[in-house]
Amino acid sequence: MPVTMFLVKGVKLQGIITWFDNFSILLRRDGQAQLVYKHAISTIMPGTALDADQFARQGSGAKQRLLQDVFLSRVSEAEAQVTMFLVNGVMLQGRIAAYDLFCMLLEREGYVQLAYKHAVSTIQPATAVDLSDDWEGEEN
């Protein structure tokens, strides 16, 4: 379903939400997957009218991996170059060399930079990254 979202800094993003978890949303924009952290989003508007009753809470016994873990793992394994925007609008580029629960290590031309996840609004790989077959199951 197409959506329009506005980030805290007023940036407008349009695309299709393909997955989400407690902390992040995977937005498909112009054929590319972009990870958007929820703390950077102020509003989301669906492209069509929705019946709110369809969103009744449904329990699930299976533990699912977090979207950001799947995304960051695949991007890191692929050594894909990424463009990362911080919530203040600053753009960073490089590859994600490592990450943990709170931060990411971005490497570019032999230099590394620690980026705290709470300061990141979006991450977009420069090339397509396969995110299939890794959504459910135990966390590593």
Task: Give a description of the structure.
With 140 residues, this protein is mainly β. It has one domain (2-47, 65-125): SH3 type barrels, CATH 2.30.30.100. Helix content is 8%, strand content 47%. The protein contains one helix and ten strands. A ten-stranded antiparallel sheet has the order 5-1-2-3-4-10-6-7-8-9, covered by helices on one side.
Strand-helix topology:
Layout: E1 2-7, E2 12-20, E3 24-29, E4 32-37, E5 41-46, H1 67-77, E6 81-86, E7 91-99, E8 103-108, E9 111-116, E10 120-125
Antiparallel strand pairs: 1-2, 1-5, 2-3, 3-4, 4-10, 6-7, 6-10, 7-8, 8-9
How would you briefly describe this protein structure?
8% of the residues lie in helices and 47% in strands. It contains 1 helix and 10 strands. The protein is globular.
Helix content: under 10%
First-last Cα distance:
31 Å
User: What is the subunit arrangement here?
Assistant: single chain
The number of distinct structural domains comes to: 1
- Rg, rounded, reads 15 Å
Structural class: mainly beta
CATH classification, class level? Mainly Beta
Morphology? globular
Within the CATH hierarchy, at the fold level, what is the topology? Answer: SH3 type barrels
Keywords:
globular; 10 strands; mainly beta; SH3 type barrels; 10-stranded antiparallel sheet; 8% helix; 140 residues; 1 helix
